[in-house]
Design brief:
The chain is built from 2 helices and 5 strands, in the order ααβββββ. The chain is of the alpha+beta class. The protein starts with a helix and ends in a 23-residue tail after the last strand. The relative contact order is 0.21. A 5-stranded mixed β-barrel has the order 1-2-3-5-4. About 20% of the residues lie in helices and about 25% in strands. The chain has a domain of about 110 residues. The longest helix has 23 residues.
Length: about 170
């Protein structure tokens, strides 16, 4: 009887510990931004054309650029991409040790209007252990410097690990 009680208690503690770790390891929402309804309305009325909307997503030691989606589509349909820069370098192609505001990834979470096309190739990004679609960049312009959350209002950004992914 005592062993059964101890096993049940240990199982409950383990369950609570794992649940606690899973919910707090990402941290609280820290990206701000509009309500989900406001974001949906914004996407429904945004300009369309032969371009993509892109959101820069920087995580230390990775070499993907960020997420791209077609105009009118929700961010949940966005693809994490690696830019092919043979025709044009990406917006933040600066030294990694430059002064603040003038270094690689200064534009984390900026939203862009991105021009180019998917090459049909998948490239391996070793630091995140993912095969990602390659995108040939041909142009870009900044749409917003602080658009807020990317996928959900409770998004948490951590520059040391991947915490943002569509679901």
């Amino acid at each position: 009887m005592w062993n059964s009680v101890m096993r049940l208690l240990a199982g409950g503690v383990l369950c609570c510990t794992l649940t606690h770790c899973g919910t707090t390891s990402m941290g609280p929402a820290n990206m701000g931004g509009p309500s989900a309804e406001q974001r949906e309305a914004q996407i429904a009325t945004e300009p369309t054309g032969e371009f993509f909307y892109g959101r820069r997503y920087f995580v230390e030691k990775t070499r993907f650029w960020g997420y791209l989606r077609k105009p009118g589509q929700p961010w949940s349909r966005a693809k994490l991409v690696i830019f092919n820069e043979r025709k044009m370098t990406c917006p933040d192609r600066l030294p990694e040790d430059g002064p603040p505001g003038q270094r690689y990834a200064f534009d984390n979470n900026y939203e862009y209007r991105i021009r180019g096309y998917f090459t049909g190739r998948d490239d391996y990004e070793p630091n995140s252990n993912q095969f990602l679609q390659e995108f040939m960049l041909t142009g870009y312009e900044v749409v917003a410097r602080d658009p807020g959350w990317l996928f959900r209002p409770n998004d948490h950004y951590d520059r040391l690990r991947i915490t943002l992914a569509p679901r």
